[in-house]
Write a structure and sequence with these properties.
Shape: globular
Strand order of the largest sheet: 6-5-4-7-8-10-9-11
CATH superfamily: Vaccinia Virus protein VP39
Order of helices and strands: EEEHEHEHEHEHEHEEHHE
Number of strands: 11
Largest sheet: 8 strands, mixed
CATH class: Alpha Beta
Strand content: 25-35%
Structural class: alpha/beta
Radius of gyration: 17 Å
């Protein structure tokens, strides 16, 4: 864990931001609503909720690779009531999240793992145990994912339950996105990869399913209504922007 970047804060107009030795924003938190997800692309990483019954969510396991400002971790733990774990290689990020981003201490439902995600995901305890896997692994330059090989995505697939979903934030040049998408499709197979349209900032969220989803548009619309009512996430908008990849 050598040569890890320093972690710094900035605040503007009620929003607190985290940085890694650069102006790039690694994550945010609305100070008055610390458990709400502030960034659009991070909200989209919760779109796996469309593909499972809402009544089953609390019984599921979430895992985040890359903690950031703990937005997804806090949402899964505090808002959704899930058993939640996150893997982070930089101890400074964990300390910062606990001190400045309202991340609760570990307990029977919340675990922070200080480790290299590429190694941690090979641990036997995670294999076939994760229902919602969120991957957001960038360095201080934020030019392309830190881990972005077919083998890495195959290892991610091995973590998932039969109904499990991986969501990945892909940010960078068009050729970087296309190459990453092909690696994900190779690892997960035909009919198992969906993608959002890019955000204005250039983040594209890709979803990959352990098992190809078999759900009607009517059911997705019903679930979107329920997600908006129960958890105040923009699920109807997700359906307009989310499509299967050819």
């Amino acid at each position: 864990m050598k040569n890890l970047p320093d972690v710094t804060l900035s605040e503007f107009d009620g929003v607190r931001c985290m940085h890694f030795d650069s102006p790039w924003i690694q994550g945010t938190m609305t100070i008055k609503q610390p458990f709400a997800i502030e960034l659009e692309y991070v909200r989209r990483m919760m779109a796996w909720l469309l593909f499972v019954p809402g009544t089953s969510v609390q019984a599921r396991q979430s895992l985040q690779l890359g903690l950031g400002t703990a937005a997804i971790t806090k949402c899964c733990y505090k808002i959704l009531g899930m058993k939640t774990a996150a893997v982070e290689i930089n101890p400074k990020v964990i300390i910062m999240c606990r001190q400045w981003f309202k991340l609760p201490p570990d307990n029977h439902r919340l675990e922070l793992v200080l480790a290299d995600a590429a190694k941690e995901i090979k641990a036997s305890r995670w294999l076939g145990a994760v229902d919602a896997l969120a991957v957001d692994l960038y360095d201080h330059e934020a030019s392309a994912p830190v881990m972005d090989t077919p083998e890495f995505y195959q290892n991610c697939r091995a973590l998932l339950t039969d109904e499990g979903t991986m969501t990945v934030n892909l940010f960078g040049r068009d050729n970087s996105y296309a190459a990453s998408l092909e690696k994900i499709k190779y690892a997960f197979g035909v009919g198992r990869v969906w993608a959002f349209q890019p955000t204005r900032e250039g983040n594209t969220v890709v979803m990959a399913f352990r098992t190809a989803p078999d759900v009607t548009r009517e059911v997705l619309l019903q679930r979107a209504d329920a997600i908006e009512s129960r958890w105040e996430l923009p699920a109807k908008k997700w359906l307009k922007l989310l499509k299967p990849c050819a």
